[in-house]
Write a structure and sequence with these properties.
12 helices; globular; about 35% helix; five-stranded mixed beta sheet; seven-stranded mixed beta sheet; alpha/beta; 17 strands; Aldehyde Dehydrogenase, Chain A, domain 1; homodimer; Aldehyde Dehydrogenase, Chain A, domain 2; about 425 residues
């Protein structure tokens, strides 16, 4: 689906925002930036594979050759994709080397690659540590790099939502948090709940569900190791275990479904440590004294991919919503109402991005066509260039007549008329 | 004009690319990124002043408060703008502190400013050295920074253009190169000319014009010092003086109009040093053996704001054009035909940007509305957010009916209809 949408966007051409000013005869368009390096993550061997995933599709659709770095935890799948991609490139008469793939690289080789003069840009999805090493190298060389690092995807549950539909919210949260053993970039890892009876019952309701659901399997030994390390960071920072917290017996790599709790004061005073991501089936509940403290908690949040607010449908939470939402809005790429963040629709308005440290730049998205293609493009302007030398999409006649173009400040599919 | 266009764009709203997917009820828009720091340059006290120039206008039009750093060479002008801006902000009920200005800062204070957690982004126009110091600090903090550094704006003059209209090209070049004593970011500082009789006569024609034109005044002692230093770098790297090369007598800060020459082999083998920008009324002519060498010269070029190719109007240069243009295209933000680069129209299709080291990112432009506004914006997505909580431009009804919105992949000014 993702590959098909990207291919359709590439053929149609609107993604490149062709812009024509007839009076000055200045024309511009987004065009391929040059060979793109794609570092794929461990968690999505299909949708985000270095060789056939979102970054790969966007980079190729924008017209760039791709060098994909396969994640070492699924070399076989990646190799199959690579072979298919190679055949496809040959079938469609792409230049030799249009798609290439490499396996395990050292940090040093990765840095040389992303900063190489012939490389146009890099897409990276993975751990924060490795990502920041690559970012520093690319930044120093002036090469664009798009990172998707970590995100705890805060969920604010306002008092009215618990009054109205506590069981339903507990169901939605549990399903979202334990989906794929929690190994989604948009996994809800931080939930802010009001103190008091309703909040307490909500925590207990989630606890029951966590205990009734079998723990999923973590992807590798290294994911389990990192789960354990991050969990300890949270515990040392003042969180305590409501349920779980131990390796799952007899299930390969894995941990019990783990629910942690911390009070609002502790979170506010120790937010950096308590925002550590535990990648997997774990979530931290923050019990906020009141609405004021919920706002202060929002103010302490780092950049995230998503942020959710659950509120009563009759509007009784709206005053509090209006205080939390503007604070949360500037800290997340996608703001949700009454919905968990794990579903990421591949649709033009999707933003799978957000402020640092969720990604490296708050203006770009790695999912959602056309916008994700523009990451791997440079803006190319033509000033007084003779008509036959222009790229087809910038000539007076709209080739195919399907691409939207901004002509003299109006979007149109028509030709330029004298 | 720039401020008016920016204000009109802000009121109209199309710059923010409002995008609505009705089936999934996902909506997104570019929104203010947060307080923007603007470092203004020395050369445009009006159009690019930190307090009222292009970056300032774009940042404010995108909805951000601005902290402007005035360049120390025109504190008075900048102060007048600041006072006007403050009055305007008060008249329009902007929050206190919406515009602020500061003067001279140390590198250290500059770095603290651009990497401060409350800062959204930075716009910088100025020297490469200071710019890269700020870039490193901003990059490390994950804060977007848009730089306009240096550019030598190569001009390729193909053999046919000299046969056809040598005097005209010499006139255009001289006017462009000496405009404002050459202190434009798009000043043509590198000209590639074919070897032989026509090329020789072209150099002589430019030499005469340089000698007949009085030298302009450089902006400050520090510009003169930097002129002298860069000139020496070029001379040490193998260039020699055709005319000029000495400080101008009795004219305040200034240098004689200076024309340098170097052969193609020397340029190709020592391109890094020979691409040093001499900011001012100076240009380096490279005498290329033949078309092949012109292509090799293009391949050695760093990122630039602009690149020009002059060719015969009857098409006899087209084979060579077709070899040089693709190489040059990937290295410049704006490609021109038969036209010098100094004019920068403020128009939607303009790209005043280009690959590093001309700027910090090849996908952005600092001139041209709407695109320049999107530098100072973050992508904000709304997923299932209740209608009354959406920003007006993302509601079903198009407020005002003037903004273009991408609804279900079609650009339209209409409302969303059920």
């Amino acid at each position: 689906n993702q590959l098909r949408q990207a291919a359709a966007a590439a053929r149609e051409g609107s993604w490149a925002l062709p812009t024509i000013d007839t009076k000055t005869n200045i024309r511009s368009i987004y065009a391929p930036v040059g060979p793109v390096v794609v570092f794929g993550p461990n968690n999505f061997p299909f949708a985000f594979n270095g060789m056939a995933g979102g970054d790969f599709a966007a980079a190729v659709a924008a017209g760039n050759p791709v060098i994909a770095k396969g994640h070492s935890s699924h070399p076989g799948t990646t190799r199959l994709f690579a072979e298919e991609a190679l055949l496809a490139a040959q079938d469609t008469d792409m230049p030799p080397g249009f798609v290439q793939m490499i396996y395990r690289t050292t940090h040093q080789d990765g840095c040389r690659l992303v900063s190489h003069p012939k490389i146009g840009a890099t897409g990276y999805t993975g751990s924060r540590t490795a990502g920041l090493v690559l970012k520093e190298a690319a930044d120093r060389a002036g090469k664009p790099i798009y990172l998707e690092l970590s995100s705890i995807n805060p969920v604010f549950v306002l008092p009215g939502a618990l009054e109205e539909r506590m069981e339903e919210v507990a169901n939605q949260f549990t399903a979202s948090c334990l989906l794929g053993a929690g190994q989604f970039c948009t996994n809800p890892g931080l939930v802010i709940v009001p103190k008091g009876d309703a909040g307490h019952r909500f925590v207990q309701a989630v606890k029951r569900r966590f205990e009734q659901t079998g723990p999923g399997v973590l992807l590798s030994e290294s994911v389990e190791r990192s789960f354990s390390k991050s969990l300890n960071t949270l515990l040392r920072a003042g969180a305590y275990v409501v349920t779980g917290g131990k390796p799952a017996a007899d299930r390969g790599y894995g941990y019990q479904n783990t629910l942690l709790e911390v009070d609002g004061d502790t979170f506010v005073s120790n937010a950096v440590a308590l925002e550590t991501e535990v990648f997997g089936n774990c979530s931290l509940f923050v019990i906020a004294d009141d609405g004021d403290q919920m706002v202060r908690i929002a103010e302490r949040l780092e950049g995230n991919l998503t942020g959710c607010i659950y509120s009563h449908t009759d509007g009784r939470d709206d005053a509090l919503y209006d205080r939390i939402a503007p604070v949360l809005r500037q800290r997340v790429g996608r703001l949700l109402n009454d919905k968990m963040p794990t579903g990421v629709a591949v649709t033009p308005a999707m933003n799978h991005g957000g402020p640092y440290p969720a990604t490296g730049h708050p203006g770009f998205t790695s999912v959602g066509i056309p916008a994700s293609l523009r990451r791997f493009a440079m803006l190319q302007c033509y000033d007084n260039v003779r008509p036959h030398r222009l790229p087809p999409l910038l000539r007076d006649k709209n080739p195919g007549g399907r691409a939207w173009r901004l002509i003299d400040r109006q979007w149109t599919r028509a030709d330029v008329t004298a």
